[in-house]
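QA checklist item 7 of 12: single-chain prediction sanity check.
[x] sequence parsed
[x] length recorded as 172
[x] structure emitted
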Amino acid sequence: MPIFKAIAKGYNKVLSTTFAISGYLILAIFVLICIQVFSRYLPVPPLLWTTDIAIFCLVLLGFIGMANLLRKGAHVAIDILVDHLPLRTAETIGIIVCVIGAITTVITAYVALDVTINQFERGVFLSGSSFNMPKWILLAIIPFGFFSTFIEFVVLIREHFLKLLALGSETK
């Protein structure tokens, strides 16, 4: 078990770091948009690169923040029906929803990784951007985001299952 605890500790550190990076990305987007707005009033050519960097930051923000949102329960959830169900039923539905989420995210992570590797092998570069950079660099965060979200779904499945077991032992 010590190796599992070390892996879990490292994973938690990675998620904490991505959460901090998310905050900096929001700040960077704000600053870039302000620069772009203020530069319109200066006698200089438009700063096209600010839009591209803001878009890159938005992409990064979404994919590195996915798992943290799920972990904190800050994602969008429609739970009006589930809140009125018995606890055992609600936990069972929670398990089913998390299994569907886990399957979806792991498949998406696999496909995204395959596309990223394909773009790397083919040497594809971004088109229509101010930056001449390989496309795989931007795509690489997508498999990470979906795989870390898959891990969080697995953790939630375990938590729902443990709650369901605890509810079962209370009724006896």
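[x] summary fact logged: The longest helix spans residues 2-39.
[ ] second reviewer sign-off
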